[in-house]
Specification:
The complex is a heterodimer. Chain A is an alpha+beta fold. Chain A contains eight helices and four strands; from the N terminus they run ααααβααβββαα. Chain A has two domains: 68 residues, Orthogonal Bundle (Arc Repressor Mutant, subunit A); 83 residues, Glutaredoxin (3-Layer(aba) Sandwich). In chain A, strands 2-1-3-4 form a four-stranded mixed beta sheet, with helices on one face. The radius of gyration of chain A is 19 Å and the shape is globular. Chain B is 24% helix and 17% strand. Chain B contains 17 helices and 25 strands. In chain B, strands 1, 2, 3, 4, 5 and 6 form a six-stranded mixed beta sheet that branches. In chain B, a hairpin with a 2-residue loop joins strand 1 and strand 2. The longest helix of chain B has 16 residues. Chain B is elongated and about 95 Å long. The chains are: A alpha+beta, B alpha+beta. At the A-B interface, helix 3 and helix 4 of A face strand 9 of B.
């Protein structure tokens, strides 16, 4: 099994020790240590979940239960860029599905799939708390791309292909823009 | 003493008490699913809602404040409380669904939510008939569902482990199974995955639910989500007959129920006894239904040549046995009693041959050291090792028994697979005349010259003394060829037993084994040999025993029934040597 080959380096183990020290129980450190693992491997497939469980000495079933709850933990190998397109209420009303379907057409894959070149994955996700700038998507658990249009999406993909992640933007809701200018 | 008012009645209570358990102990009812008295209280099913509050006391005077009518004022808690997790306090007022429409409504609405994604497959569900969800819905649920769209679909027929099958759609996520694995058996193999509307219990992907206690989760599952792979689709519960008994697969003597249908034991479930097994039993004990039904010795048999046995009549068996006994001096007889047989069988067996002049029966404890855990699995593989010691059979080991066999001419073995468990070899017995009184076909019966079929624990009333010195007894659950449920008042009668006849499709004569209780067979043998030996019932044997043996004084079947077994004042004989 591949399971034996997986192991944390000494540096990572040191980091895990630091994380554990912050929590009253080792079980409570599960989320953070899953992140350490996902940053290392790019996913938390079952064997990685087991590695986390065995390192923390918590039941394997517990880590599996936690990992299966969060869409942010990738239970299978994903593309280099994971596009989490929000289709929850606000985004849906502002055209979230159009953005999603446009992306699917552009990349030739469906939500939940990864392109053959391993560059992109699309996920349909629930609210990411950016209703004011709908429709929106998130790139690999990181930056948000807001107020999307089809053109903006095309440009985003082109940039990503060239290895350029979008910049973080400080957003203000449209109705508050005037006030923001006045303040600044 | 602190007081609490439940449904307008005043009760006193002591110490820390949870409202739900207190109400249940009073014999009243509040519906619940996730609560279990032996496990932690997560209050996650939300079914046991009650309306609760507190009488208002004046801070200064310490007097209760009264309203205009002179009744005490109540400050209700802002929301419905889950009674399982509501700790009683002095002056608490609780209204259950019996007196509060709000509580009734809250329970009804919770049920409607629980039922949203629950499939309507009760007609094919094994749990139907003993399903808390079904029962509570009938009693407290809404008339119908307002949920008209498609239900969430989840995995069906998942082999969670070698013995447990999961139907995730039926699960209401009470987490009883998860808590059982965490808190009781300690294997921690289960968790709830995909939390949200698609949640269900699961093991980690690399693990399988092979917990030695896994089937207890099937018992405590309040719906049909966890089912026993062995028992799946075997019988409707209302067609079966439930008979209290004792687990005979190890030394703990877990209290169990045998579920029979047409004289076949179909499943075995634990019976609550806080002194022995609480609500639980090991999976191994449930497997015993196979040895009660299958591979039984039915009808006496004699060895012709080699390994060929031929069935014979009871008369011929008695005659053959008697001739063998008459042809040998009593010193040439070797009696081997059995920790696998009951106290009564061992006693009657030993006494019979003592009357003939043979020396006391020997027995060999059946231990596998390191096999047990600190819970319900013991090193002792037999249910009655202490019972053999109680009636002073001669304890020996494999070497001792081999020597004794070598010196004897006739070896008489009571219900013990000595060859199978390698205490003896078939070669040891080959030159001797060997008689086995046996329940099942084993290597030992194959090596025997005469095999007498006797009743097993599922067919007789008899007592067993467990590793801790507790004496407990069984009831007959299966009919033999010679017993009749309707005449034997000790046997219970299920619907099929009552209305089935020999001429219909669901009653089979083959399920009745052609066997006799050991003592009854010995009665017949005594008649033939002209011995003073007559026991009409195991009760008579036990009465004689309790007169003779100091530590059994005052112990009767009635006491065992009333007190769920009686702890005997005997030394705790260790369970080390093998």
């Amino acid at each position: 099994m591949a399971e034996q080959e997986l192991a944390f380096t000494q540096e990572e183990l040191d980091e895990i020790e630091r994380i554990k020290a912050k929590f009253p129980t080792d079980k409570a450190a599960t989320l953070r240590v899953l992140w350490v693992a996902q940053n290392k491997y790019g996913h938390v497939k079952p064997e990685v979940q087991n590695l986390v469980a065995d390192t923390l000495e918590v039941p394997r079933s517990h880590v599996h239960g936690v990992a299966s709850f969060y869409t942010q933990y990738y239970k299978e190998e994903m593309g280099k860029f994971v596009l989490d397109v929000c289709t929850c209420l606000s985004c849906q009303l502002c055209g979230g599905y159009e953005i999603l379907h446009h992306l699917e057409d552009e990349l030739g894959i469906k939500a939940g799939e990864t392109t053959d070149d391993g560059l992109f994955s699309i996920q349909e996700v629930e609210c990411l708390g950016a209703c004011g700038y709908a429709p929106m998507l998130q790139v690999t658990n990181g930056v948000y791309a807001n107020n999307l249009t089809k053109e903006k999406v095309d440009k985003l993909i082109e940039n990503l292909r060239n290895g350029n992640l979008p910049e973080f933007e400080s957003m203000v809701m449209r109705q508050n823009e005037k006030r923001k200018k006045a303040v600044s | 003493m602190p007081e609490v008012f439940i449904d307008n009645e005043r009760y006193e209570f002591e110490g820390d008490q949870m409202a739900l358990q207190f109400i249940l102990d009073l014999g009243m009812e509040v519906p619940f699913f996730c609560y279990h008295p032996s496990m932690s209280i997560p209050a996650n099913c939300r079914q046991c809602m009650v309306k609760a509050g507190q009488y208002i006391k004046d801070q200064e005077t310490g007097e209760y404040e009264l309203d205009d009518d002179g009744n005490r004022k109540i400050r209700w808690f802002p929301k419905m409380q889950t009674s399982c997790a509501l700790k009683l306090s002095d002056g608490m007022v609780i209204q259950t669904q019996e007196t509060s429409e709000e509580a009734e409504r809250a329970q009804k609405d919770t049920l409607e939510f629980l039922l949203i994604n629950h499939p309507l497959d009760c007609p094919i569900c094994d749990q139907a008939g003993e399903c808390p969800l079904q029962i509570q819905t009938y009693k407290y649920g809404p008339e119908g569902s307002r949920f008209e769209v498609k239900k969430v679909h989840k995995p069906k027929r998942v082999q969670l482990g070698p013995r447990v099958t999961l139907d995730a759609e039926r699960c209401i996520n009470c987490t009883r199974c998860v808590r059982f694995a965490d808190e009781i058996s300690g294997s921690k193999q289960l968790t709830i995955v995909s939390r949200g509307d698609k949640n269900y219990p699961m093991t980690a992907p690399s693990e399988t639910f092979d917990d030695p206690y896994s089937l207890n989760t099937v018992d405590i599952c309040p719906v049909g989500a966890l089912t026993s792979t062995d028992f799946r689709f075997k019988a409707r519960v209302w067609e079966m007959n439930q008979t209290p008994s004792i687990d005979i697969t190890n030394g703990k003597g877990c209290n169990i129920d045998l579920w029979t249908r047409d004289n076949e034991v179909l499943r075995i479930t634990p019976r609550h006894n806080s002194e022995v097994n609480d609500y639980w039993m090991p999976d191994e004990g449930r497997k015993a239904f196979e040895q009660f039904n299958n591979n039984r010795v039915s009808r006496p048999s004699v060895k012709l040549d080699g390994d060929n046995h031929s069935n014979t009549s009871w008369n011929n068996a008695i005659e053959t046995f008697a001739e063998a006994l008459e042809a040998h001096a009593p010193q040439e007889l070797l009696l081997i009693g059995s920790p696998h047989a009951s106290v009564e069988e061992n006693y009657a067996f030993n006494k019979f041959f003592n009357l003939l002049g043979a020396s006391t029966a020997k027995f060999i404890p059946h231990l596998i050291s390191g096999y047990g855990d600190d819970f319900l699995i013991t090193d002792d593989q037999a249910p009655n090792t202490n019972g053999c010691r109680l009636i002073s059979l001669e304890e020996t080991d494999s070497a001792g028994i081999k020597t004794a066999v070598a010196e004897a001419e006739v070896v008489i073995i009571l219900a013990d697979d000595l060859v199978g468990r390698e205490a003896l070899s078939a070669d040891d017995l080959s030159a001797k005349y060997t008689v086995s009184l046996a329940t099942n076909k084993t290597l030992t019966t194959r090596a025997s010259d005469l095999v007498i079929p006797i009743t097993c624990v599922a067919e007789h009333a008899a007592s067993y003394v467990n590793v801790d010195g507790r004496i407990q007894r069984s009831f007959p659950a299966k009919e033999t060829k010679y017993t009749n449920r309707r005449l034997n008042l000790e046997m219970s009668e299920g619907r099929l037993d009552r209305y089935g006849t020999n001429f219909d499709n669901w009653v089979k004569e083959e399920h009745k084994i052609d066997c006799l209780p050991a003592w009854e067979f010995l009665n017949h043998l005594a008649d033939r040999l002209g011995l003073e030996f007559q026991y009409d019932h195991s009760r008579t044997i036990f009465a004689e025993l309790s007169d003779q043996i100091e530590s059994l004084r005052g112990v009767t079947y009635e006491r065992m029934d009333d007190e769920q077994g009686v702890q005997l004042p005997i030394e705790q004989n260790e369970v080390t040597q093998a």
